[in-house]
Amino acid sequence: MTAPDPEHRPESVGPAYREQAIDPRRSAILSVDMQNADCAREKRRKPLPPGAEHDGHRYFYDRLERIVIPNQQALHAAARRLGIENIYVVIESLTLDGRDRGLDHKISQIHNPRGSWEAQVIEEVAPAEDDIIIRKTASGPFGTTNIDYVLKALGVDRLIVFGILTDQCVENTVRAAADYGYLVSLVEDACATYSQARHDATLRALKGYCRIRTTGEMLGEFEALGRMSGSP
Predict the structure, then answer these.
(1) Where do the domains of the chain lie?
(2) What are 82-97's pLDDT values in tens digits?
(3) Which residues have C-beta within 8 Å of that of residue 53, sequence separation ≥ 6?
(4) Which of 26, 38, 104, 213 holds its CA 20 to 30 A away from the CA of 79?
(5) Does CATH place domain 22-229 in 3.40.50.850?
């Protein structure tokens, strides 16, 4: 689909307005919850206990290993070459005892203490020294952290979103970002949840909130932008 003239008002363009190409000066990658608590190499490669093969964890870990992490590595690298911000969102309490957590995380007993190993991004897609890390204690960062302020300070209004879980924190992030006025590209094969059915159902539900791309399509867009700007 041909991208609309960005000067056109969204109400005059309609759904095609979401199809605008990435502008490196106005864009950021938003990596969601790629941290040791759920994605660490030790967890992915450790044999599951008896009976656990059917709860989706093996599917989840295999997808991370074979598809998601390699795709994310390629996306981060390509974005850095274009000067696109790489921003990481992680679940991490502001306190050691988690008293600052949102109600749902308290009920769900989700707690990664401040500065803990669990809160750190996995080494395969680790932040660079000057990358931004947003710490949250809820499903999504919008309305629960200062991310909107940070993005506006950076001049960012277009987001490239991926991470885990597709149907939980990623979905929350995409929906809220759209409501906050961001154009969102969801990279579907850089996301994972506990079954293909759950993943696919979320993609169907999110079509009205973002444009959905594969890693190959996103990298192709990055490559075209690089040629236009003369980047290597």
Answers:
(1) 22-229
(2) 999 999 999 999 999 9
(3) none
(4) 38
(5) yes
